[in-house]
């Protein structure tokens, strides 16, 4: 499934509140990042109904809503800061991708200077793209023919982040470039943001550890206050991650990036060499799901479809066994609903009992149980359950919320797509959102939650599974929650979302790489940034010459006004410490950090 998927509008709060100036600005800025004007209009229309705006804000909202409606009706697409037709956008993307392919060929041939020029050209041709600038950032970060330049690397990683503010790999690489320039505070913020947007971030954890270690060995010099920030974030991530120690004999770690859908779409990459196409898959998120038929799982659309990356390239379902062990089975997204937040997944092998779906409305105030995998890095990888009641039924009179139940039950990130059971063990709803502020991503836990009714799920499944039928409604007795969890737990899974990595195989052009070296590991010396030379540190040395000053006696004036004075004499001598003002770096060999040999 690689068709373009239209965004679903977020739910509109039942009680409208005021919005701060900063949140007002952030929400509108985020909407502008949408690829299509249609999606931007859908989100802006929902935004316009979600708050009590002041007079100034309301005037802006009405003006901008009309602009988005006009662009949507013309079916325009974003190209940098301009809005153009789809044909114009696709032509620019294809041109940029074609130039990138030429740049990658130049890299493989060792023509790094030519590759950089081509990548720069590609970035200008497609102002939406991030692949070209990411490659330039790597070239200036890693030992490609002595091109190390942290300042240049930072410039291009910053361009990636401006175009895609949640690109975790670029944020991590940006942090490395900032550390190399002793900008420790901004580097910390980059690493922190990377850790917030990435579901797993061993590279970020390692880089934090490396800053701490090098500081203790006096090779880096952040202030004590900034160092404490690093130590605190490191401890937090180690506690929340399934941490694997990478080891001190490892340099800075970049990570394989995932690029937006446009730059992974083979239709927009002319003459792509299939053998060079990326085969590594990167996990960019997770949610929950449940078995509805052998080999078929139901989850949320927003779990399986990323706003920038499109439909997942691969799906993994993590199945738990009664003994507590887990195994991951891989498959694909086979259907995405256009109307409600649902997606259907297929895997080659499944375990457990399919969960029955209820084909009638669940009464108000009924007991329910939410099952899923919230915040797995914080709370662990085992199934979690929370109880609540049905606090609101689908209401056709309310815009955007007509298709949702509301529940008085706690849920969190990762619960999305999980089943909500009634006391008879039937799926009444599919957990979809937590009713915190949709536009304030600092809010996580939500007491009130919402979900797609099972009736809508049945319609969706009947459309895409020919022989699917819901459970026949019979008189069930209420069951204990623990018994229901034991019965269905194997059929309730953690859903892992994967996208293809976009880094080409460039290790062969790095002749200085030792055998088995990870091309995304930066072992360049922290003192000289891989140049293997430093400016001479002898006082007074300028380009290898030292000016010595001596004095001789002289007289000035005539007669009684004649005076003896000291006259300076300047002599230039060669500096014995350097050659032309440069010395060999003592911390490395040919630019490679000696500590990492």
Approximate shape: elongated
Overall mean pLDDT score? 85
> What is the overall number of helices?
15
User: Which spans have pLDDT < 50 for at least 5 consecutive residues?
Assistant: 274-278, 437-446, 505-517
Percent in strands: 15-25%
Roughly what percent helix?
25-40%
What can you see in these coordinates?
- It contains 15 helices and 27 strands.
- The longest helix has 23 residues, at 86-108.
- Helix content is 32%, strand content 24%.
- Strands 6-7-12-11-10-19 form a six-stranded antiparallel barrel. A six-stranded antiparallel beta barrel has the order 13-14-15-18-17-16. Strands 22-23-24 form a three-stranded antiparallel beta sheet, with no helix packed on it.
- The protein is an alpha+beta fold and 597 residues long.
SSE topology:
Blueprint: E1 17-18, H1 21-32, H2 37-48, E2 51-52, H3 55-73, E3 76-79, E4 82-85, H4 86-108, H5 112-125, H6 131-141, H7 150-163, H8 168-180, H9 184-197, H10 202-216, H11 224-240, E5 252-253, E6 281-293, E7 296-299, H12 301-304, E8 305-306, E9 310-311, E10 314-320, E11 326-336, E12 343-347, E13 367-372, H13 376-379, E14 384-392, E15 405-411, E16 419-421, E17 427-434, E18 446-453, H14 454-464, H15 481-488, E19 492-500, E20 521-522, E21 533-535, E22 541-542, E23 545-556, E24 563-574, E25 582-584, E26 588-589, E27 592-593
Parallel strand pairs: 1-2
Antiparallel strand pairs: 3-4, 5-20, 6-7, 6-19, 7-12, 8-9, 10-11, 10-19, 11-12, 13-14, 13-16, 14-15, 15-18, 16-17, 17-18, 21-25, 22-23, 23-24, 26-27
In short:
By secondary structure, this protein is α+β, with helices and mostly antiparallel strands. The chain is 32% helix and 24% strand.
